[in-house]
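Internal ticket - ligand job 188, inosinic acid:
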Amino acid sequence: MPLTRKVRLRPLIRRAAIERRVRAVARQITRDFRGERVHLVGVLKGACIFLADLIREIDLETSIDFIAVSSYGKGRESSGQVRLLKDLDSSIAGLNVILVEDILDTGMTLNYLLRVLSQRRPRTLRVAALLDKPSRRVRTVAAEYVGFTIPDEFVVGYGLDFAERYRNLKDICIWKGATPASRADESA
Ligand code: IMP
Ligand code: MG
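stdout (structure tokens):
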């Protein structure tokens, strides 16, 4: 049975709309950095699919690196204690860095990452977030590039997971299941 036919998943943003919006964001980045190189830093693991689609629509010289973090918390909630699991492979000094995230929720993760990366002297440092859930923000963080602003629903698909599942869905879906009582350490 296809995953999306399970009653707990309801499509919120269809694949065709995602494709159009990712292309538009890439065009905006291409315009903003005309003639320059951009260095995309993907936040593992959720951003990998967004990054893969985004970079192929950017008409500039590009390079890629990845960083991985985890936040301690219960179930869907992130507690704000962010921990670095995997650092970048190379220096970002002097580069136009675009931090690529799957979703901007409380802002804890990006707040941490922006603090860490800004200390490494990038030429510019911007954020591209596929999704933004502004209603849950507890830290002031803004993304220069946002795919979609969404309501306060837990979503999966197109890279986003629930307990590592559903990253492979082509649509972004609202997930309406029960939250496990506690998960000690959730990676992004
Ligand atoms: P923040 O630190 O609260 O902004 O959370 C960012 C991270 O929490 C994201 O990178 C996701 O891994 C996870 N997250 C937040 N909201 C959702 C959601 O609706 N679905 C899946 N993951 C989410
Ligand atoms: Mg996650």
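Auto-summary: Confidence is low (pLDDT under 50) at residues 180-185. The beta strands are 9-13, 37-44, 61-72, 81-86, 96-104, 124-132, 145-149, 155-156, 172-175, 185-187.
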